[in-house]
Design a protein that fits this description.
mainly beta, four-stranded antiparallel β-sheet, 25 strands
Length: 322
């Protein structure tokens, strides 16, 4: 009987405490908002996040999330190692993935089924991308090659051989006629996308070339390197046009503005920079990140730039020329 009495007393105490806390919460939610106070309710189905309602007090209330969980459509399973990249086809009907397991795979976005496995590389595949007309795919691998594949059947069309080190990126030109590759052998190369023939070699970087991308009209290429520079090249001849020097560490990515007049670079020196694409002159610094900046791209209208960083943030910047 004594145990029952203790249990009954404890239960009554807990119920009373719960009622008091509930009443206090309702009073806080009903109170008018004041400076420095956050008073918000949240829907029952939303997971609670707690936030201090006053910096000088030790009171906390559930705060409505400014985001919500999206519905998962598909999970693509089949690779036997980490998946390093994934990209949609231009029409959105397909996705191509690249993996440490040495393969790339094509998936149907409507059904989630695998359409083809691209087998032939002898080491991990860093990236895979569709051609603008969706007919072909190019992959880049640690086996020192890039390869072109038929996007409908998965059959290999050509192996782009010539690099003397890992090929870490490969991309089609805007018209799909050319491919540019970047390699740890300190070069970038341009290839005929139909035959796999090497057209030009861009030599000049003093360390690993991290990325290479065409300009919007396909006439120029920008490369980035661990030598701390980005460089602009003639896409037809491979001649160097401009050197963008100023970063204090590796430059991991670069992108042209939609009009091709500017270039934005991202660096491990925690900054991004904007450059004149014709002269290579640096005219703006994007400072604020507290870790490596690993990518930077322009918005479609060229008015904004978004950067991504090791500091766990992405930031949007005004890209207007001062």
């Amino acid at each position: 009987m004594r145990h029952i009495a203790i249990f009954t007393t404890t239960l009554a105490t807990l119920l009373a405490l719960n009622a008091i806390l509930t009443f206090a919460a309702l009073l806080m939610l009903a109170a008018p908002a004041q400076a420095g106070v956050v008073v918000t309710a949240f829907p029952d189905q939303a997971p609670a996040r707690w936030e201090k309602i006053n910096r000088s007090a030790r009171a906390w209330v559930p705060l409505a999330r400014a985001y919500h969980d999206l519905r998962l459509v598909w999970t693509f399973r089949g690779h036997e190692g980490s998946v390093l990249s994934a990209a949609f086809s231009p029409d959105g009907a397909r996705i191509v993935t690249a993996s440490v397991d040495g393969t790339a795979r094509i998936w149907d976005t409507a059904t989630g089924t695998v359409i083809a496995a691209l087998r032939g590389h002898e080491d991990r595949v860093w990236s895979a991308a569709f051609s603008p007309n969706r007919a072909r795919i190019v992959t880049a691998s640690d086996d020192d090659t890039a390869r072109i594949w038929d996007a409908a059947t998965g059959a290999e069309i050509a192996a782009l051989s010539g690099h003397e080190g890992w090929v870490v990126s490969a991309a089609f030109s805007p018209n799909g006629a050319r491919i540019v590759t970047a390699s740890e052998d300190r070069t970038a190369r341009v290839w005929d996308a139909a035959t796999g023939t090497e057209i030009a070699v861009m030599s000049g970087h003093e360390s690993w070339v991290r990325s290479a991308a065409f300009s919007p009209n396909g006439t120029r290429i920008v490369t980035t390197s661990d030598d701390g520079t980005a460089r602009v090249w003639d896409a037809a001849t491979g001649a160097e046009i401009a050197v963008m020097s100023g970063h204090d560490s590796s430059v991991w990515s670069a992108a042209f503005s939609p009009d091709g007049a500017r270039i934005v670079t991202a660096s491990l020196d925690r900054t991004a920079r904007i450059w004149d694409a014709a002269t290579g002159v640096n005219y703006a610094f994007l400072r604020g990140h507290e870790g490596w900046v690993v990518s930077a791209t322009f918005s479609p209208n060229g008015a904004r730039i978004v950067t991504a960083s090791q500091d766990r943030t992405a930031r949007v910047w005004d890209a207007a020329h001062p």
